[in-house]
Amino acid sequence: QVQLVESGGGFVQAGGSLRLSCAASGRTDSMYAMGWFRQVPGKERVFVAAISWSGGTTYYADSVKRRFTVSGDNAKNTVYLQMNSLESEDTDNYFCAAETRHLTTVVALMMVPTYDYWGQGNQVTVSS
Q1: I need a labelling partner for 104 at 20 to 30 A (CA). Which of 8, 33, 97, 110 fits?
Q2: Which residues of 47-81 are buried (b: 16+ CB within 10 A; e: fewer)?
Q3: Which helix (H) or strand (E) holds 109?
Q4: Cβ within 8 Å of residue 52, ≥6 positions away
Q5: What is the DSSP string of 19-78?
């Protein structure tokens, strides 16, 4: 079992920045990748970014490239999502997730069913 606890969301004006954190505990040695998704209530979760836990390869949705950066600290078992140049369209509930079955192709990492464990979600609100 892996437990994920998120922090760092909040309210920011358009053009501002926020950093989300996701701390993992439990069987962290079983993690191969971690991802970030966003979701509006009542709609499907949408891929934002992912990082392979061993090599640090990163992947991004086109909508956040050059604005968001995903990074990881293996010693702290924590993954971060640095969000810059935020837009009102970025307003959502953001979830981190851990993948433990080594499904680490680019296509797989963009899919919700790939991930085995999820954080509680963290609201990000961007005012225009």
Answers
A1: 8
A2: bbbbbbbeeeeebbbeebeeebbbebeeeebbbbb
A3: helix 106-109
A4: 32, 33, 58, 104
A5: EEEEEEEESGGG--EEEEEEE-TTS--EEEEEEETTT--EEE-GGGTTTEEEEEETTTTE
User: Residue 104's pLDDT band (boundaries 50, 70, 90)?
Assistant: confident
Question: How much is the average pLDDT of 50-75?
Answer: 94
Amino acid at residue number 17? S
**Which pLDDT belongs to residue 41?**
85
Is residue 23 a contact partner of residue 97, using CB atoms and an 8 Å limit? no
Distance CA 73, CA 81 (A): 12
Element housing 106 (H / E): helix 106-109
* pLDDT > 90? residue 78: yes
- 59-to-34, 118, 126 alpha-carbon distances in Å: 10, 18, 23
Q: Terminal CA-to-CA distance of the chain, rounded, Å? A: 40
Between 70 and 55, the higher pLDDT residue: 70
Residue labelled with tokens 């079992």: 1
